[in-house]
UniProtKB/TrEMBL annotation:
Annotated region (Disordered), positions in chain: 352-414
Residues annotated as signal peptide: 1-37
Protein species of origin: Agromyces cerinus subsp. cerinus
Family statement: Belongs to the LytR/CpsA/Psr (LCP) family.
Keyword Signal: yes
Bias (Acidic residues): 362-376
Keywords from the named record: Signal
Protein name (database record): Transcriptional attenuator, LytR family
Positions of the Cell envelope-related transcriptional attenuator domain: 98-256
Length: 414
């Protein structure tokens, strides 16, 4: 009798497991992954960070594309804490700097997007921020003319968000910080990225050595490629930004071409990797939110996804936003796609070491934006706004439709 009862329970337990499995598979393959994701990620997600502006969000979207526009700040921290021995001694290299600060902007109608890279040495004004060491106490005083990459150490992720909000004039409701190993993990989650390299890259500082040609980058190699400065362009941080844009544009093309942005299961895997490898704002802790943001880009024309280096210039030895920065800000604030000056792009890559590393830009990208005429209306008095923002020659970057090659440097050239 005892064995019979055990067997009966075993049958019911097996049936229950099968039922749960079917429900999980159905959920992940269909329109909602929230229940499974919450269970699966409960022990992997890192503690979240409150930005202080979460009340602006209007509910949580499902796995469909998020409604409206998105502003998401991605912060790359150079902190060595918890990163092992491969990135220097964490006890000696204790600075927590946001050496990478990128703003992803998706327009309200999802027809265009921009990724703005802010140079780490650019001087910015920092507004009053909550003190991460004493959140309930007095806020940190505003500061003026500090390096962008020092803001993370001053006031943490929320302070970087407030600083960029003040700089560009748009609200930022989503943010995430990633360290070295997290970048490697995320690149593995997307399945690798094919990148073109015009000349060999040799960088003993990041231990990166790549031959010329197409290279599939993933894991630690992808991290090294994104970190390298001495091995590309002119060896400067601005040259590194151009290199990062080569990688990101290739990533955008890959995600669209292999159907990842339309596949909830693939997106869930990336969301899982993000939760496990990144420190996220409260607003991003629900994996369905991340999936919804990614889904918003699945049908966006690659020529309307722009990677922009925030324009700067030197004044008395300091790197400051140039006058053209306001044009970039205006495009963000008005949801406008941008067009680059192709001659400026070619000049930028030529100064980085290899003008042949630039593929010919699509003809449509080289043309000045065209303003559409408003339909005939008897009482129409307001002119039709421009359909795109033409960026001046000192604003460099590329669209995701353009395949460019990294301008590598060998040790002999350094």
């Amino acid at each position: 009798m005892r064995h019979g009862r055990l067997k009966r329970r075993s049958i019911w337990r097996t049936l229950a497991k099968v039922t749960v499995t079917l429900v999980v598979v159905t959920a992940v393959s269909g329109m909602s992954v929230a229940a499974y994701a919450a269970w699966d990620l409960a022990n992997t997600a890192k503690p979240s960070v409150t930005l202080g502006n979460e009340d602006m969000l209007e509910g949580v979207p499902d796995v469909g594309a998020i409604d409206g526009g998105v502003n998401l700040l991605l912060i790359g921290s150079d902190s060595r804490e918890g990163q092992g021995d491969g990135f220097g001694d964490p006890d000696e290299e204790t600075a927590v700097l946001n050496d990478v600060t990128m703003l992803l902007h998706i327009s309200e109608d999802h027809t265009n997007a921009s990724v703005i890279s802010f140079p780490r040495d650019m001087l910015v004004d920092v507004p009053a921020c909550v003190d991460p060491e004493d959140p309930a106490g007095d806020p940190l005083y505003e500061q003026y003319g500090v390096k962008m990459n020092s803001v993370l150490s001053l006031g943490g992720m929320p302070c970087v968000v407030k600083t960029v909000e003040q700089l560009v004039g748009v609200p930022i409701l989503f943010a995430g910080t990633v360290q070295f190993l997290g970048v490697a993990g995320l690149s593995e989650a997307v399945g690798g990225v094919p990148v073109c390299i015009a000349e060999p890259i040799e960088d003993e500082h990041t231990d990166l050595y790549l031959p010329a040609g197409m290279q599939e980058l993933s894991g630690m190699q992808a991290l090294q490629f994104l970190r390298t400065r001495h091995g590309v362009g002119d060896g400067s941080d601005l040259g590194r930004i151009s290199n990062q844009q080569v990688f990101m544009s290739a990533l955008a093309r890959t995600l669209q071409s292999n159907g990842t942005l339309s596949d909830p299961v693939k997106l869930y895997g990336i969301a899982k990797a993000a939760l496990a490898n990144m420190e996220l704002s409260d607003s991003l802790m629900d994996p369905t939110t991340m999936i919804s943001i990614a889904s918003a880009l699945k049908d966006t024309d690659l020529s309307k996804i722009a990677f922009i280096q925030y324009p700067t210039g030197y004044s008395d030895g300091d790197l400051l936003p140039s006058e053209s920065a306001e044009i970039v800000n205006t495009a963000l604030q008005n949801d406008l796609p941008v067009t680059f000056d192709p001659e400026a792009d070619e000049a930028a890559f030529a100064s980085a070491g290899d003008p042949t590393a630039v593929d010919a830009a699509p003809e449509a990208e080289a043309e000045a934006p065209v303003e559409e005429e408003a339909p005939a209306v008897d009482d129409a008095t307001t002119p039709t706004p421009p359909t795109a923002e033409a960026l001046p020659s000192d604003v460099t970057g590329q669209t995701a439709a353009e395949t460019r090659c990294s301008a590598g440097r060998t040790l002999e050239d350094q």
